[in-house]
Amino acid sequence: MVDVLTEITINCPRHIVSEYAAEPDHASEWYVNINSAEWQTPKPLGIGSKVAFKADFLGKQLSYVYQIAEYIPGKKLVMRTSDGPFPMETTYTWESKDGQTTRMTLRNKGNPAGFSLLFSPFMSLMMKRANNKDLKKIKFILESGHDKPIH
Model pTM? Predict the structure, then answer.
């Protein structure tokens, strides 16, 4: 079992952080390993929505479809995939520290099957490292105002 929890404090209001993070179209902007996200169901995001992701992890190209299992806008998002050798659940939570500061958590848990079972401890370490980079990147984007559309 792999269970990796990372968190960061972002100097930005919770509604801005959660709206940006929960939008699949932004995933490739702040996730270091995600190359693309493609909607499989109509927008907007809700329970049952499906999004196909393409990513690079540990030198491999991965393609998987996440389905939204739980979504409480501004508070929590849970996505699950059963694709590939590594079924995974990803959870985001957002909590206001004060009006201008948000604590965001990113948790990945799953049960690697077969060959990848041997690499569980290594995968946990690599996922934690990647997740920390991702959270630092979303913090940078939101705190520097790079999330604003350029007109």
Answer: 0.90
